[in-house]
Amino acid sequence: MSVPSSRLGSASTSRGKTATDSKQSDDAGSDAVLTERTVINEALIRAAVREEMLTEHDPSCVPEAADIDLPTVETLALNYRNIYRIDNLVCFDKLIKLQLDNNIIEKIENIDHLTQLQWLDLSFNRISKIENLEKLINLTDLSLFSNRIEKIEGEQLVMKRSLRISNPVEEWMARLMRVITSSKRLPPFSLSLYTFH
Questions:
Q1: Which residues, 6+ apart, have CB-to-CB distance to 110 below 8 Å?
Q2: Which fold has domain 5-185?
Q3: Domain boundaries in the chain?
Q4: Distance in angstroms (rounded) separating the CA atoms of residues 29 and 93
């Protein structure tokens, strides 16, 4: 079964351009480095799902990208694709694992309908705020290695389960703990932080 393109979004950006456009890098000290910015669209999703299937199954058993039944997909790896905005993931009701690491994403958004999601990797992006996670009731693993986290919106961490947030930088952990302990609105919850050296 194929999902209509209208449910997944088209290959255009919010400005009506093509699926990629150029943006000057905002990294300090870089000399006019251009980065191709990518939008999540049906073609990108289908190619990523097929790539994942090819690593796990005999190639003769893997359907062509156009024949993949996207609503049944449980794992989606969209890492290393210069994605700058999370969008067009509307048909993934059974998605359990989502990899969006090593992109140029600045905001956690448009994933609140992924209520079956248990594992979310947003490492190595440009995210400055942990937000929009309150509806992800099954989320237990959130990876945010090497981001620009400065703020946590309190309500999304009001959980009845343990959420492991991993980031290897001790300074970030100290800042995170200051934010958590200074918040007057957070009821008790379990939060595990660990580092990797």
A1: 85, 86, 87, 88, 89
A2: 3.80.10
A3: 5-185
A4: 42
